[in-house]
Amino acid sequence: MNTSKRLEDAITKLYTAFHSDLLHPECCKSCAVGNILDNTEAWKYLSDDHGAIVLNYIGKVHQGLGRTFNGYTPQELLQIEAVFLEACGYSLPIRYYGQKPINPKDKEVLFNSLCVTVSYLCKLDGVSNVMDYSKLFEFENDGAVYELAF
Asked: How far apart, in whole angstroms, are the C-alpha atoms of residue 52 and residue 59?
């Protein structure tokens, strides 16, 4: 399967962050987008609230100029973060009194959220979900439809 450089880079960064315990949904440098953008926080100035999908003035200017950050537009970045946060269990945008997971750094919460996020990243690039292994179990006439390649 052919994937874009931005998708490969994003998945690699999220994989590294997850396995290095450097993924934290409430920190703008350590959340999904923070990690995709090399642990920088500049992206948080694209909207007024963490988890919001509406660009503010600065975000609209960057979007209008066609700027991308590690291959993603400002609107795509906000949507990626919203997908990740919602999958973690947050009500959006994040508020002090809003719904949130009991332990945002729980490995199971983060894993499940990353599965949803990677699926969304694949959708943005128009490729099949790289985490979908269901094809491995498809069969026809008592035989596998697809071979497992190593």
From this structure: 12
Q: DSSP string spanning 67-91? A: --BTTB-HHHHHHHHHHHHHHHT--
* Tokens, residue 134: 């269901």
Spatial CB neighbours of 112, under 8 Å, sequence gap ≥ 6: 87
CA 137 to chain centre: 26
Residue of 132, 107, 120, 42 lying closest to 81 (CA atoms):
120
pTM of the predicted model, to two decimals? Answer: 0.89
pLDDT in tens, 29-77: 999 999 999 999 999 999 999 999 999 999 999 999 999 999 999 999 9
- Give the confidence band of 27 by pLDDT, cuts at 50, 70, 90: very high
